[in-house]
């Protein structure tokens, strides 16, 4: 008990004396724990919220679009093995005309789900009410579209539904589990102003599409534990005579795919960044405790001489290590919760969840605590073991003075140090190469985090530029409700203000290589067209081959094919032919996973003549209003994409999201730099206080004495810059490979400005820390310092 009380008093005295270093360590540990709690909590929140949302509003497990089928066919679909419930609905594309938006608006229109609680893909009413069955013109739209387009309840919406014009009236706004991330076809960022989802009564929609007592879309919910593969196979066989476009599972549904991709990216971040912070914290803790043991040699010897057990002394330093890290753990938990709630609010605006609260259960905090204590224990092991090996006689004998007479140390210091203070700095660094090297690594970690966290902005901007500037130079993209013959191309060319038209043909397909299958599109691109090109992530353009197909790198990887291999393409449109195509090239495209063929070849293989699914248009901006008006009235136009508006929406979305993430990661990088620089400088000051005081007594000015200490830190910072830049670049290269999905490929880009900014951030953090240390040097107690061996 006497031992325990005495060491407890010493423990708290040590903590107070090391409060500066403890704060620096707490900042670094807090950054790591905060990142971990935030990332793991957000992963848990997104997964839990998605699962609860899907279950509560009965999101379908399988989707099956088709051309047209009679309603009695649903009885056979419901009898398929593994099907718990199945519902038919009517879906179509449409062009909307809203007074607040000058451009034509593309929309997806669905029939309303049944009103009972067992219906699939139920809607969450956010404002207004659902349409009255006795009023065929009433509709509801997704909430984000209503906000983006400036729609109010009661506003009229003019629509073209499969060639028929109708005036609809908005009576409510809703959310749907099917459109948590609402995207128009071919896009990866939402444009809520120019793309919307509309739900209306089934009877008026069926009348507009001539689908009375028929349907063109099927929703299926599987029995618990059932896998969708066999159900999809049977469903495709059943729907093939009715123009089935190929059923697909929920995991292939575009909204769910994007959310899964976001969760995977959070998992990557949680697996990469927190270990960096915690390893830096372990290194700092090791240095602090090693220095403490060295300076308390006599105290350890006296404790052992007075009978204190070795295990009690070891336990004392273990307790000190744990207490030094507890502040950082507590700070990290609070920081992670605060950041998690803030980012959850950001996700709530970006993804249309009816509810999303940050959730970090007790196991998340226990995991964060364990992940903190393991590297802390590793960092303290060396120092604690050093205290255990000291015998009382060894401990009470003064340590040998540092030896500066080594030939290598002396030669380097004399050659590089033009004056005595400079030579003192170099000898000090060379005398402790391991600690100097670890300090360089710690500082480099801060710069690495900054470079890595800032690089996504340039890479994503490059991806957008490749996809929207180099690959697509059109002003408008017009999509037809169904494939049209060449007369549609001539009609587009005759519109006043249209200067150039490039047609395309697109069809849904199942692409197979061996036992591997992908549900993707097959695109027929005009050879020699100058409005739309195939571009890879390096900006290299290519043309579609006269024979065979070009596929993306993601598709080649998933299908495990190489150049020269053959793939089997089962078209799910029209006459549904099966094609065997040779892979002539593999293109690492920024967006999508489609296969590309020459349009003329595609038309010939489909045996349908000169047909097109839509066209890219180059227009005279002065005739924009007239062109919009003409396209809004065209009965067969299912969608119009305005490239300039889409570019603006995408850049605005990226800017908003990356501003928040930039601020967050810059702060973490600064915390690491401050923690490493301050700890290194304080330890050097403690160890060399007697030397610095001696220099003052010998006549050195305060500025010269400060130069000895701060010059040492400056050299460490300078030495860390190349390593930090290199590590940041390589870490971003590694993370890009982890972020790559089947929907987009982020090109590897390093903006030189980011590197320069990172160097300035490190320098500024180091300079701020140097000011604090300089203050301590200037107020050094000379008498006290000269009376101690420290």
Automatic annotation (TrEMBL):
Protein location: Cell membrane
Residue span(s) of domain ABC3 transporter permease C-terminal: 276-390, 664-773
Organism: Sphingomonas oligophenolica
Protein name: FtsX-like permease family protein
Entry's transmembrane regions: 21-43, 272-293, 314-339, 364-385, 663-685, 706-734
Keyword annotations of the record: Cell membrane, Membrane, Transmembrane, Transmembrane helix
Annotated family: Belongs to the ABC-4 integral membrane protein family. LolC/E subfamily.
Record membrane topology: Multi-pass membrane protein
Entry superkingdom: Bacteria
